[in-house]
Amino acid sequence: MMTNLFSIFDPSTNIFNISLNWLSTMLGLMFLPTYYWLIPNRFLLLWNNILNKLHFEFKTLIGKNKTNGSTFIFISIFTFILFNNLLGIFPYIFTSSSHLCMSLSISIPIWLSFMIYGWLFNNEHMFSHLIPQGTPKILMPFMVMIETISNIIRPGTLAVRLTANMIAGHLLLTLLSGTGTSMSSKFVIILIMIQFLLLTLESAVAIIQSYVITILSTLYSSEVN
């Protein structure tokens, strides 16, 4: 049962023994052609407002003296994760964000770039983060170990947070859909309503998780400056 349950996350589309499932990672680019953005519409205005609010929020967290290019990096990460999370909700579309190899490929380069930049160009500031202010001298060695471990596990926590939340919602929807065939017609209507509510909740989780991952990455970048 568990094997069949988790098999919904296995890549299964192959042509000439080449897996095409991971192409869905870039599927969002097909829905955003260049000429589409040249036509004023409500979706464009809404999306521009969201990006502007994210830009000002990220700029506040990073620092107002930083260039706009720093915020554009995090906005691109937010957009990439958001489209992959939302596309994974649709039927027959491979959910790439539910795999650790995809989420780790995002979190590890971000964390490594912050660590390399911080220790090369701002090492005194990085050392000061290892010991919080007001720490007793007897606890300083333990605080250094705790802060070092917390810094090392950051990419793992980012990746696991995204993967676990996406897997949990998909598994719950799969479990409920599998029990529909053994129910009477009265309970099927209730089950459809519950699935609709879960689908709405899963859409909200997809948006929230992309925002949380981006905000945490922004906070990590502010620590090395």
TrEMBL record:
Entry keywords, A to Z: ATP synthesis, CF(0), Hydrogen ion transport, Ion transport, Membrane, Mitochondrion, Transmembrane, Transmembrane helix, Transport
GO cellular component: mitochondrial inner membrane; proton-transporting ATP synthase complex
Coiled coil: none
GO molecular function, one term: proton-transporting ATP synthase activity, rotational mechanism
Subcellular location: Membrane; Mitochondrion inner membrane
Transmembrane segments: 20-39, 72-93, 100-120, 158-176, 188-212
Bilayer disposition of the protein: Multi-pass membrane protein
InterPro entries in alphabetical order: ATP_synth_F0_asu, ATP_synth_F0_asu_AS, ATP_synth_F0_asu_bact/mt, F0_ATP_A_sf
A Pfam entry, by short name: ATP-synt_A
Stored CDD domains: ATP-synt_Fo_a_6
Gene3D superfamilies on file: ATP synthase, F0 complex, subunit A (1.20.120.220)
UniProt family annotation: Belongs to the ATPase A chain family.
Subunit organization: F-type ATPases have 2 components, CF(1) - the catalytic core - and CF(0) - the membrane proton channel. CF(1) has five subunits: alpha(3), beta(3), gamma(1), delta(1), epsilon(1). CF(0) has three main subunits: a, b and c.
Job of this protein: Mitochondrial membrane ATP synthase (F(1)F(0) ATP synthase or Complex V) produces ATP from ADP in the presence of a proton gradient across the membrane which is generated by electron transport complexes of the respiratory chain. F-type ATPases consist of two structural domains, F(1) - containing the extramembraneous catalytic core and F(0) - containing the membrane proton channel, linked together by a central stalk and a peripheral stalk. During catalysis, ATP synthesis in the catalytic domain of F(1) is coupled via a rotary mechanism of the central stalk subunits to proton translocation.
Protein name: ATP synthase subunit a
Organism of provenance: Phyllonorycter platani
Gene that encodes the chain: ATP6
